Amino acid sequence: MCLGIPGEIVEFLPDQPDLAKVNVSGVKRVINVGLLADDMPKPGEWVLIHVGFALSKIDEAEAAAALSFLEGIGQAYADELAALADSRIE
Amino acid sequence: MRFVDEFRDSDKAHALAAKIVGLCEPGRQYKLMEVCGGHTHTIYKHGLEDYLPEQITLVHGPGCPVCVIPMGRVDDAMALASQPDVIMTSFGDMMRVPGSNGSFFDAKARGTDIRMVYSPLDSLKIARQNPDKQVIFMAIGFETTAPSTAMTVLRAAAEGLDNFSIFCNHVTIIPAIKAILDSPDLRLDGFIGPGHVSTVIGCRPYEFIARDYGKPVVVAGFEPLDILQSIYLLMLQLSRQESVVQNQYSRVVPWDGNVVALRAIGQTMQLRPYFEWRGLGFISHSALKVRDEYAKYDAEHLFDVPGVRVADPKACQCGEVLKGVLKPWECKVFGTACTPETPIGTCMVSPEGACAAYYNYGRLTRQRVKEATTS
Ligand code: SF4
Fold it and tell me: What does each C-alpha distance from B371 to B49, B116, B145, B367 come to in angstroms?
């Protein structure tokens, strides 16, 4: 839950400017990007996601580093990804 | 992984280590605290202590949110969850935290309706689907997760959902650091500042540590080289008798934090006069509750919460570990009665807890460093 997960913005949801579809290690889910209202990311950009909310914009190098940190954590990251896969934010 | 190598280059690590050694004053011992559990994890996983001279000790701080939840709050949550027509939702990390009658997982097995969610927003969906039930989200975490809870409350209010509330256990990191600074048990020389919390609060809130306590603070990233670099920056300040706040993780952490997130927290939550932390006791103004304007979404307002205080199990020394007074393996039950599978204390539950991190990696450290330096 404390893990910041990197995700790539795929697209924004029509009519819901706060919600965006992201790609996290191949899992595509909807997250809330409202906390980045001052500097909205664009499709193709990366964000660090905490419990369904993008908290900061990051570049691709940072995303790769964050991902490998998470993969190193092992089971906890697997659990977090599984939880994300079950998530249905709308 | 070209990108990652940049943060992991072992030549660079050894070069930094050599520079750190060069900054140690002969005969002086240094204690640096990493506040955040994510850092604790990296330190053990990569055996960073073995890169450091023996004069430097890394002390593991209280920055693991499930580790600091007192048992009484777990029991209170359980009491809420077992009310009729209540669905409790919780992050996975919280599910194994022991209360005096077992964990959420145990309660779930006994038939209590507790559901694991990835995001507080997932609880809203459960509330919409179950209009005849009250859905209570077990809100925990530092400033990293508090904005998400705040935004979820705002969303519930905007939708007019009236069967959703939160049991708010959000804690704030600054008062905990202050409590540690004021504690007579421990003399620290500097702080490796938390990374993700700082994306929200920024670097300014740490300024009192440098100004009033004369201790340097370096906000750090999570890669091994980030942490070594931050230790180097701390040692450089100490050698020059300086104390300022530096941001080693500026590629992610803005100096002023995330203003939208802070606003959302301020709009929906206010400081509690005091809150109990596991192992650290009561700390004033160290936690958040739902603002009166949003009392409709506050489980403590809607339901009777027993508010019990439960002493930690006798064998448990998490308090000393959280304050950095004891190393995990110095706890009497470490690795025997207390393991990640059967945690007695909270520090063994989350992978960011010092005990779990050490249990998983610490024992491998020396071996790995030997391999890395001989290959
Ligand atoms: S070994 Fe277990 S009981 Fe002892 S300090 Fe660690 S988590 Fe707490």
Answer: 15, 41, 38, 6
